[in-house]
## 1
Amino acid sequence: MKHTLMELPYAMDALAPYISEETLKYHHGKHHAGYVNKLNELIKDTEYEEMSLEQTIRQSNGAIFNNAAQTFNHDFYWNCLNPTKTEPSELLLNAIKTTFNSMESFKEAFSKAAAGQFGSGWAWLVTDEHEKLRIYTTSNAHTPIEHNLTPLLVCDVWEHAYYIDYRNERAKYLDNFWQLVNWEHVSKIFGDKELLRSSASVPICNDPDDPICEYLDDMSRQGTTST
Ligand SMILES: [Fe+2]
C-alpha cells in the first residue's frame, strides 16, 4: 500500500501560541511528509509494499522501520493535540488516579520522563501487558507498538517539535503541551481498549486510513485467532 501523509485535524495556526504555525508547517509539511515519502520510496517493489503500516513496523528494520515508525508516531502525535480544551473520560481519569494518585502527579511524572529522554525521542502514556497505565519513553523512531504496548498519549520530544518556538527549552514546550492535549482522543482509545477486553474481540474500528483504528482491529483479530 502507498502510505499517505495524514491531514492535520486542525488548521496550521490553530495550536498557537503554544505551537506556532511555522512549527506546524515544518513539522508536518517537511519532517512528517519526509518520513512518508521516504517510506514509499523504500518499499517500492518490496514485500513491504503489500503491508499495512503496523505490519511494516513489526516486520522491518533499518531505514524502512525508521520511516514507518516515524510515520505512525507522528500520526499519533497530531491526533493527541487539539486547540480546544477537552477533559478525560471518567474511566480514564479514575485509571490515572489509581495509578499516579492524581492528574497533577501524572502530568509531573510524564513531563519529567519527557524532559529526561536523552536526545531525540518520544514520551508516551501506554497500557502495558497487564493492562496497567504506564509512562514509557522511546528513542529516535522507536514506538510502543513494537512491544505490544497500547499507546494512549504521546509527546514528540525531537528538537524539530519545539526548536522554532522554544529553542532549546524543552521544559517550556512540555509545560505548554498540557494546554493542547486532546483528552477526548486519549479517552476514546482507552475506552475502546477496555471495550475490546470485555467484549472478546469484536472489531470496533474499520477505517483503513486511521492507524490507531487499524491497530485496535489488529489486536481484535489476534484475539480472535488465539481463542
Ligand atoms: Fe516530530
## 2
Amino acid sequence: MKDAEPCPCGTGLPLTACCGRYHDGEPAPTPEALMRSRYSAFALGLNDYLLESWAPETRPTALPDDDPTQWVHLEILDHGEDGDTGRVHFRATFREGRRWGALEERSRFRREAGRWVYVDGEPSVTRLKPGRNDPCPCGSGKKGKACCVRG
Ligand SMILES: [Zn+2]
Ligand SMILES: [Zn+2]
C-alpha cells in the first residue's frame, strides 16, 4: 500500500493522513471520525480494527475474512455528539459483482475511556440499479458507463 493512496472514506486525503491514523491506534476524536475509519476498515478488510472499535455487548465474535462486498462510496448525512454518546447517519454504497446497493444507517456510538466505539444502529439496504448513462454510484461524477457500470 502506497502512502499517497486516497482514503476510502472519500475525504480526498491520503489514507495515512485520514483514517489510517485511527487504524494505527490514535483515538478517533469524534463519532464521525470513528464512523469514517470503520467504513474505511470495512473497505480495506481490517477486521481487527472493526472488532476493537465495537462495543463489547454488540460486537460479533468474528467477521468474514473473504467478504465479497466492495464498499465504493460513503456519504455522511448527519452526525452529532452529546457528552459520551454520539450518532452518525450515513449512506454507504457497495457492490457485489454486478449487484449494487446502498446501506443507510443511523448508528449509535459511545465514548469509553477516551475512545469512541460503535454500539449499534438500524440499517436498511436498498438495491440500486444504476443505468449506464446515470451518474456512477461510486460518486466519481462520471457516467456509469465511463466508470464502474459496464456491460
Ligand atoms: Zn478517511
Ligand atoms: Zn464509478
